[in-house]
Design goal:
By secondary structure, the protein is α+β, with helices and mostly antiparallel strands. α4 crosses α6, α9 packs antiparallel against α10 and α15 runs antiparallel to α16. The radius of gyration is 37 Å and the shape is flat. The strands form 4 sheets. It has a 5-stranded antiparallel β-sheet with strand order 4-5-6-7-8.
Length: 550
C-alpha cells in the first residue's frame, strides 16, 4: 500500500515538475543575464551557479538594477525597521472593548519577533528578487522548536506548483540536495534507504536528492488532531528510496506563491522578461567600449616584414631599425574611436536607465523633499511619487492575499498552537476573536488614499468652517471620537495610545459626576451664604425695630 502511494506521489510530483517546462529555458537565460547567483535546475549542483556567476560579463549594470529594485520592493512592502502590518479585529466593535487594543499590540509584537528570528526578512528579500527576474517566487514556512517558525525562499528551477480554480496555490513539490548526514538527523537513520544508510558511515556528506510534496488531503478525519488528519498532506522521499522518509501534515499550506504578471502558464512573467534584451545590449555595448579603449591604449601596429626581431612596445622600449625599413605605426587611424566614445557612453547610459525602469529600481529611488527640483512643489512631488508607485498596484493585489496574509495567519495559528499567543483580555473572554491583517507599509499607504488622510482633510475643513461661521453647531454633524479612531487606524498608532469607547464613556461619566458634585457643592455654598445673609438681614431688621421702639 505504501509503495503504491509512493508511486502515485512520484507521478504527481513529476507532473508538477514538468509543468514548468514552458518557462525553464527562459529562466535559464534570465538567470544567466540577471541573477547568476539564483536558481538551481535539474541536473545542476551549486557549482552551476558559480559557472553562471563567472560568465564573461563586461558589466553588472542589469544585476545592480535588479538588486536595487528588489531592495526597494522589500523596504517598501515588508521593511524590518518599521511596522508594515497590524493585526485587527474583523468585527470593528470588538476593538472598543477594554484592553482589546493592548492585546492586539502584544500579538503584533510577538509575531514580529518570530519573523525576525526565523529569517523571514532574508527569505522575503530573496523572494522579491526572484519575483522581479523570474516573474514568480515561492516561499516556505516550517515550524521550529528554536524560533517557532523558520522561513526559506525556494530556488527557481527546483519546484513545481499547481493552482486551484481561483488561482490560489493548491499543491507544491520541490527537490532538495541534502547531505546523507542531514537526512539522517532529520528523519532518523532507519527511515533512509539501504543505499543511503551504507553511505552514512563512510560518506556522510555525500549529496542525495530529497523530495517534498504538499497537497490537500483527500480523506481525513476532522475529529482527530494527529498529523494524518490535517488538511494538507506532507510527504518526503528519496530519489532511490522504496518508502517515504516521512508522512505528515499541515493545518495550513506552508508554501506561498505569487506571480508578477499572469500568463497562459501558471508561472507567469515578470520585469525580467522586459529587461532581458537591454541586459544583453548593455553588455555588448560595454564590450565594444572596452575593445575600443584597449585599441587606443595599446593599438595594433604594423611593421616592415623584413624586421628580424619583435618590436619593444613597452614604455621606454627601444627597437633598432634598418634605415631602409619603414617605421612601426598603427594599422588603423584610431582618432574616430576617441570621438565615438561619448556617443557609446551616452547609449550605455540610456540603456542603463531603461534597465532601472524595467526592473523597478527607479520607482523606489528615494529623493528627499529638500532635493526636489526648484520648480516642483512638495504636493506635486508627492503626487508624482504616488503615481509612480501605482505601477505596483496589480502586483500588490496578488502579493498581499496570496503571500503575506496567509503567511501571517499561519504564523499566528502556530503561535496559538504552541501556547505562545497572549490570552485575550477579560472583556473578550468567551467571544470568538477573528483577526485580520491590515497592511500599513510605506507602499501600502502610498497605493491607496488612507482613511487617515481623508479624515484629516475633513477635520481641517470643519475647523475652517467653525472659524468662518463662528458657530460650534457644525461640530454636531461630526463624530469626533470616531474621527480619532480613524486617524489612529490609518496612521498605525499603537493600540495602547487610544482608549476604548467604554473607557472613554466611563471617564466622561466620572468627569460629569465630579462636575455635577462640584456644581452641587457650589450651589450649597451659595444657598448657605444666602441663608446667612438672610439671617443677618433679619437680625439687623429686628435690631432696628427694637431700637425704634425704645
Amino acid at each position: 500500500m505504501s509503495s503504491d502511494k509512493l508511486a502515485k506521489a512520484r507521478a504527481f510530483a513529476a507532473h508538477l515538475q514538468s509543468s514548468r517546462s514552458v518557462r525553464e529555458e527562459k529562466w535559464r537565460e534570465l538567470s544567466r543575464w540577471l541573477a547568476p547567483h539564483r536558481a538551481l535546475f535539474d541536473g545542476e549542483d551549486m557549482a552551476a551557479c558559480g559557472e553562471r556567476r563567472n560568465r564573461n560579463a563586461f558589466t553588472q549594470m542589469a544585476q545592480a538594477a535588479l538588486l536595487r529594485g528588489a531592495s526597494g520592493l522589500t523596504s517598501g512592502m515588508t521593511p524590518r525597521n518599521i511596522s508594515w502590518f497590524k493585526p485587527d479585529f474583523q468585527d470593528v466593535e470588538m476593538s472598543e472593548a477594554s484592553g482589546a487594543r493592548a492585546w492586539l499590540d502584544e500579538i503584533d509584537r510577538r509575531m514580529k519577533e518570530v519573523l525576525a528570528a526565523g529569517g523571514f526578512y532574508q527569505a522575503i528579500h530573496a523572494f522579491n528578487t526572484d519575483l522581479l527576474w523570474a516573474g514568480c517566487a515561492l516561499i516556505y514556512s516550517e515550524s521550529s522548536d528554536e524560533t517557532v517558525m523558520q522561513f526559506e525562499c525556494v530556488q527557481i528551477g527546483s519546484f513545481g506548483i499547481a493552482l486551484d480554480g481561483h488561482g490560489k496555490l493548491d499543491a507544491a513539490v520541490r527537490a532538495m540536495n541534502w547531505t546523507v548526514e542531514r537526512a539522517a538527523r532529520t528523519f532518523g537513520k532507519s527511515a533512509l534507504s539501504q543505499g543511503t544508510q551504507s553511505k552514512l558511515e563512510k560518506n556522510p556528506f555525500d549529496s542525495i536528492r530529497v523530495w517534498h510534496l504538499v497537497r490537500p488531503r483527500d480523506y481525513r478525519n476532522p475529529g482527530k488532531q494527529d498529523a494524518q488528519s490535517m488538511p494538507y498532506e506532507s510527504l518526503f522521499w528519496e530519489d532511490s528510496g522504496n518508502d517515504f522518509l516521512h508522512e505528515g501534515g499541515y493545518n495550513e499550506m506552508p508554501y506561498f506563491f505569487a506571480v508578477w504578471h499572469e500568463s497562459a502558464n501558471p508561472y507567469g512573467t515578470g520585469p525580467g522578461d522586459d529587461a532581458l534584451p537591454d541586459a544583453r545590449q548593455v553588455d555588448m555595448l560595454e564590450r565594444r567600449k572596452l575593445e575600443g579603449l584597449a585599441k587606443l591604449v595599446n593599438p595594433p601596429v604594423m611593421a616592415d616584414f623584413r624586421m628580424k626581431q619583435e618590436p619593444d612596445l613597452d614604455p621606454g622600449g627601444l627597437t633598432w631599425l634598418d634605415p631602409q625599413i619603414a617605421q612601426i605605426r598603427p594599422i588603423l587611424d584610431l582618432s574616430p574611436y576617441a570621438h565615438a566614445f561619448q556617443y557609446l557612453q551616452a547609449e550605455i547610459n540610456t540603456v542603463g536607465q531603461r534597465l532601472e525602469q524595467e526592473l523597478m529600481a527607479s520607482i523606489f529611488a528615494s529623493m528627499p523633499l529638500d532635493q526636489r527640483p526648484r520648480d516642483m512643489s512638495a504636493t506635486e512631488f508627492l503626487e508624482r511619487k504616488r503615481e509612480a508607485l501605482q505601477q505596483m498596484g496589480p502586483v500588490m493585489s496578488a502579493y498581499e492575499p496570496n503571500v503575506l496574509t496567509p503567511l501571517l495567519h499561519r504564523l499566528l495559528a502556530t503561535l496559538d498552537r504552541a501556547g505562545l499567543a497572549p490570552p485575550p483580555p477579560p472583556a473578550l473572554e468567551g467571544y470568538p476573536c477573528f483577526l485580520k491583517m491590515d497592511f500599513i507599509s510605506p507602499m501600502a499607504n502610498a497605493l491607496r488614499q488612507t482613511g487617515a488622510e481623508t479624515t484629516r482633510a475633513l477635520m481641517q475643513d470643519v475647523a475652517m468652517l467653525v472659524q468662518t461661521t463662528q458657530s460650534m453647531d457644525i461640530l454636531d454633524k461630526v463624530d469626533v471620537d470616531q474621527m480619532v479612531d480613524e486617524l489612529a487606524t490609518g496612521l498605525g498608532v499603537p493600540g495602547k495610545v487610544i482608549r476604548a469607547d467604554s473607557d472613554v464613556a466611563q471617564i466622561r461619566q466620572q468627569r460629569a459626576e465630579a462636575q455635577a458634585a462640584q456644581m452641587r457643592q457650589q450651589q450649597q455654598m451659595i444657598e448657605a451664604q444666602a441663608a446667612v445673609q438672610n439671617a443677618q438681614g433679619m437680625a439687623n431688621a429686628a435690631k432696628t425695630v427694637n431700637e425704634m421702639q425704645d
